[in-house]
Structures
1.
Amino acid sequence: MTEILRLENVSKSFGGNRAVNDVSFSLEEGEIIGLIGPNGAGKTTLVNLITGVHPLSAGKVIFAGEDVSRQQAFQAARRGLARTFQIVQPFPKMTVLENVAAGALFGGGTGSVEDALDLAHEELKFVGLDAVADTPASSLALPNRKRLELAKSLAMRPKFLLLDEVNAGLNASEIDGALDLIRKIAARGVTILIIEHLMKVVLSISQRILVLHHGELIAQGDPRTVIEDPQVVEAYLGSKFAARVKAESHHA
Amino acid sequence: MKQFLYFGAFALWVALIAATPLLADNYTIRIAISIAMFSAMAVSWNFIGGFTGYPSFSTAAFFGLGCYAGALAQRNGIPLVMAWVFATLFVAVFAAMLGAIILRLKGHYFAIGSIAIVDLTRLITSSWGSLTGGGDGLNVPLLQGSPQEVSALVLYVMLAILIVAFLTSIYVDRSRLGFGLKCISQNEDAADMVGVNTTSFKIVAYTLSAVFCGAVGAVYASWVGYIDPTDSFSILLTLKVPVMVLLGGAGTLLGPVLGAGVFVMLEEVFWANFLEWNRAILGGIIVFLIFFLPNGLLKIQYRTLYGALVQKLRSAPKQAEKSS
Ligand SMILES: Nc1ncnc2c1ncn2[C@@H]1O[C@H](COP(=O)(O)OP(=O)(O)OP(=O)(O)O)[C@@H](O)[C@H]1O
Ligand SMILES: [Mg+2]
């Protein structure tokens, strides 16, 4: 197993507010990692720090052996660190195909616009959006917009994909579809970090879980250990939930 | 196919303008020159205002600096064409350096910052009397030849600038650069996130929006033979050029050329007939644009419009029958 991402004592303050406080962890290539924590815990901020959107206040981010602490967002994209936004961010007037081609052309480093469009076609097929390739992105409904975000990130040929609440706003069957897709992406060898509020989803998909609370990493490990961790129960899950999950997992 | 149509329409229009010295009087040639130079500046503006979606009002700063750089180079003994080239390069470098600073601003702030540049360059020019002649202006060595020859020469040089600008815009439109600029115009954060180096892309677009204006300015100075700060760094010019592009269709290839042509001719008609109303017309066009033509002349759905008109005409007689 090789390490793909390591954070060393990473902190971020906005004014006086410590959104991320002294967080360290190391992730292996090929894992699916769940990142959980209450609202405002600093999950999105952490993604922003890893992908160069915000400069770090302190600490280091090491990606594939390289210190990327001072990178800008576009450089992260070109290195193979792709992410989706909690609030989807399409290029609204471009077609779905062009949206994905943008990912291929810039993040993916495809040589020409034509090649990028070809590759975009492939990725649209992969996520099941090829039927709407030529419609403007703004005309898509939410589930398809989320798929578009995925296709766009995939076209960037990422090594590491950070998914910020890709399932938020989807109904149960749509979530199942999205999870299938995420597993298919992992099968391509992409390491995935997924932020998700629905515990059922996190537990079903993650091999490892990180828990943030008030900007601090309060627990990490395999899903079972983490949900039984008293601190996590206290801060996030609530005792009733913990008991229920425990009961369910004993039945299984 | 579409590409051919663009080339064809543009080539035809350029040929028509180029023919004026053979066919028409000096007054018409002046209008043709005006159309050529404003078209070149409109095509330039389209790089930043159209493709990239940054509402720049710096055009007059680039034009004015082009005027002065060309004039000063010539007065210091640099031959005519070299002086024009020097002015063009000078303005390009100026825009690239300025862009690195001013493009940190977005939206309204960028618009205000970019218009302040016009005032700033004008103030510097008029206060730096020892170099620029200050408010008294500068005489520029006159072009050699009869008035007809001079206007024909100026027309062809302006047209050459326009052609280069237009070909550049076609190239950019199809290239990686153009794709990135369109991404920036739609959603800059998302553009960053897919790996577009937004800062350098914007600087390139801003520089492209300047370079041809610098060239036009230098040639203009040689043509008129005298420049001063108010005329060279004119707020009216800085407003007119974007309005032309919006009139024709921002972000399209032919829109800027169409808009500049229509605008200059409209202005000419009104100029000739209602002298005092000239500025009111600019205002009128702006209001008209905002309310009726938000996407410009090129983006009107002419077919739908025609269909609606036919429907109206057909139903009108019927209604007349009913009511009688
Ligand atoms: N750009 C910013 N400027 C100032 N404060 C910020 C900024 N981004 C986040 N914060 C603050 O940092 C803290 C963590 O926010 P963050 O968005 O990372 O939480 P989160 O875990 O993603 O929450 P949620 O589950 O609601 O998405 C919050 O207190 C938030 O107000
Ligand atoms: Mg969040």
2.
Amino acid sequence: MVLECKHVWDHISGYLDGTLDAEVLEKVQKHLEHCEICSAILDSTRNILILTADERVFELPIGFSERLHARLETEMRDSESKSS
Amino acid sequence: MKADGENRDEAQMIASILGGNTQEFHALIQPYERSVYSMALSMLQNEADAEDAAQEAFLKAFRNLEKFRGEAKFSTWLISIMLNEARSRLRQKKTAKTDSLDELNEGGHVSPALLRDWREIPSEVLERQEVGHMLQVAITDLPPIYREVFVLRDIEDFSVNQSAEALGITVAAAKVRLHRARIMLQKRLAPELRRVMPKRRWLSWF
Ligand SMILES: [Zn+2]
């Protein structure tokens, strides 16, 4: 059985994560070999994931760590004085 | 995230902290600061709120460390504390108009405020900055259930199973949501990215 494009799209995410069953994977791969549209969609989806992983989309604000550990320090001192 | 936290004996660090060596908590959480903050920012969409909520989540983790049983990874446990913190803050703010709009917005369309923001970007900014901003806007625009799993899996590099565990959903549900999140982003971003980075192939989904 040959997969239609829209069925291939359902498997794009699983294909990128490598979680497809062997049987489905083979069908998807066969389809991708000759379908320009689906392989372009796959490429652009993969590119977006690569950019997302690359870009440090949500970067830590300057001084975040210092402020966090200072607040923790206060908490730790309080908890120690309570328990002793 | 995987690389940072994986080769340590966290169970032993936690035992030591609970045994009174509280200073070790600083080292324990250090590899996870960015993941927790990313999750907070993607949910709360405001840097000051996100930082405050992230601090609160780490404090709660410290106070409740004895309740950590070690069935899950420490990072997964931390993220679930962060999620609860962010969700309860969002519930408190629920009366605000923008939030209810956001909840209804299942299709992941552009909200007016963010669109305005996008138009303000000067054309001469570096491509990299522009792309980063585009991604951030598109991701924060996803409906929450899709955004959460996308941030964990594709930004913070959690496995699908670990993402499901942190979110308290089944692996199957995590896969479905992740798929929808990726499709929504592809549909939205492919045309925008084609303009900024014309050399690559950016075919729209439909
Ligand atoms: Zn096709």
